[in-house]
């Protein structure tokens, strides 16, 4: 998908094109040229309420308009823009339009709005179709033009980089565990530009004293790995990001119920997020040093699997007694965290894990749990 900028709409053919315009829930709009259009939209029931969407042929200059509601102006924030844009893009995707011109609300900084528009376009129009059979494909938007000045060009580019990096992470997260293996993750990491990649293989875990990784990976069929990504573009001490990468979590000997177990391919989402972040940093040429670590393994039962009651010694000498083998995430993360502290002396650490379903029970699907010091 191509995202451009322009200061006016094309005057050529209207076939396949649509104009997306945001409106507030009052008649005083940011762009005065759309005041009359808003009045016409009100005539067919559009109020500009938050997340309200109306696709219509009202107006003379464009065949089709997608009006999105931003709600009351005094309650507007960037999250309102994100959700409303996403709803608008989904409505357009369900139709036959391949090109979209977008007016910015003009409330926040123009560069900030432009970056958000490009980012939301990328992540909303994402489709994971690698495994779908048949020839049917969704209508895909081929081109988006953000209506604005040349000064927002870099912001649009950065928004698209962030969106594509997010989708890169989603690609690995969505892969079935038989394909989304530690080795495949390594190949994705090695494809990143300006990122140095090194790998500690399973055979080295015991030698290095990584008892958590060694224990959890004992019964794994796919070779476990600790993938280390280094992005250096500063003279400062690095930040570290560490993402849990259990490519499939059966629970081990403390096996999970079969219902819903197919979703345990998503226990690698922490590692996926680190992969996407490293891609974004490198492509944006961020002036920072960042180390990304991903402890990657399956957690499976077997005759050689680690067991409840085992005591594992971690990289830093601390020990863990295993009560349930379905609490494997903290065991592999403990080794990765202590290794990062010892080898890289980071100024700060961000660790990202799908650590427990209790977080969803407590906070729901739209809020992440954050703990820190």
From TrEMBL:
Gene3D superfamilies to which the protein is assigned, alphabetical: Leucine Aminopeptidase, subunit E, domain 1 (3.40.220.10), Zn peptidases (3.40.630.10)
One GO MF term attached to the UniProt entry: manganese ion binding
InterPro entries tied to this protein: Leucine_aapep/pepB, Macro_dom-like, Peptidase_M17_C, Peptidase_M17_N
Residue stretches making up the Peptidase M17 leucyl aminopeptidase N-terminal domain: 41-134
Record bears the keyword Protease: yes
Keyword Protease in record: yes
Gene Ontology cellular-component terms listed: cytoplasm
Domain called Cytosol aminopeptidase: residue spans: 167-373
SUPFAM superfamilies: Macro domain-like, Zn-dependent exopeptidases
Keywords: Aminopeptidase, Hydrolase, Protease
PANTHER family: CYTOSOL AMINOPEPTIDASE, LEUCINE AMINOPEPTIDASE-RELATED
Family: Belongs to the peptidase M17 family.
The protein's name: Leucyl aminopeptidase
Organism: mine drainage metagenome
